[in-house]
Amino acid sequence: MTTPNLPDADQPELRGTVNLADLEALGRSRLDRNALEYYASGANDEVTLHANRAAFRALRLRPRMLVDVSNVDTSTTVLGLPLACPVGIAPSAFHGLAHRAAELGTARAAASAGSIMTLSTFSNTPIEDVADAAPGRMWFQLYPCIDRELSADLVRRAEAAGARALVVTVDAPFVGRREPNERHRFALPPHLRVPNVASRDHLARLESESGSQLVNYFQGLIDKAFTWDDLAWLRSVTSLPVVLKGLLTAEDAVLAAEHGCHVWVSNHGGRQLDTAISSIAALPEVVDAVGGRVEVYLDGGVTRGTDVLKAVALGARCIFLGRAALWGLAAGGEAGVRRTLDLLQDELRLALALSGKQNLGQVGRDLVRL
Ligand SMILES: Cc1cc2nc3c(=O)[nH]c(=O)nc-3n(C[C@H](O)[C@H](O)[C@H](O)COP(=O)(O)O)c2cc1C
Which pTM value belongs to this model? Predict the structure, then answer.
């Protein structure tokens, strides 16, 4: 299926969407099998992929009544940056598979919505161009590379371009086995590039090997020996705040806080270690472990305003959207991502009001029955 060439603002199907499930259905309908399987799949039996959403649904809210909710404020801050609501964009590779606007569409939508865009190492658009599309509202995600100079160069470029934080993904020394991508040998279509890290020639050579092209490429790039001790080296290359993405336990959260790093609770959308704990189930022990020393974020399975509310109630400062942003992008480019963010903010506002809360500061653990 081809991406329609309608201007973003002139897409009646987009206007007809009332929730993120509608946007997902529309987005999916616009993708070919290669892209769809890459975006949708989780590791192995996809137990964790499904658990992320199921765990949100299983939590019950304890709303309060007879509170003046005529004005409800969804705003917050992350690392001092004001956000319209506690929803950002998680890093995901290859936005060009979703829409011709690629990362620029996502970044513009995030910026205009007062959100934040986390740019993947594996973007189809150079760091500097994305930073220009979301001025002051971009974080950069790094996979630690075997070639330290490559890592250092990426980090310096991101910092120079105006990134506000460095998100180091720590749950992927190896790529999880997403079986549909292996079975059908996922590959980037020839028109897409990975300009930050790879030449097209490099990727083309990998196509002759077996399995997923991404797995083949990743194996040769990522430093599998990167440990807590190496964070000092990262600090020597950048003065940006460091966020560790992919932590799921109190033990690692304590270490992160001791290393002065913020914590992003995530199981990579169920794409890495299958049967790992769902991210919302991991959140309370992480929040207790850091004890307010650093900020805590979460991603995985967020599709409703009530999901955002539950994550905030359990101590997340902000949640991030992985697939939901990609479905929005596939559904309608920049306007599709913007619609995703707007619908979620509207749902959060209503959920706050119906819970008897005027703002996020009033939201605490007592709102959730664990
Ligand atoms: C298609 C796809 C590509 C991804 N690429 C990256 C990546 O390049 N770097 C990274 O740190 N996480 C990556 N992730 C993980 C996301 O950042 C995020 O943790 C996850 O998607 C959240 O779960 P959700 O999709 O249920 O929202 C990717 C996820 C998906 C679905």
Answer: 0.96
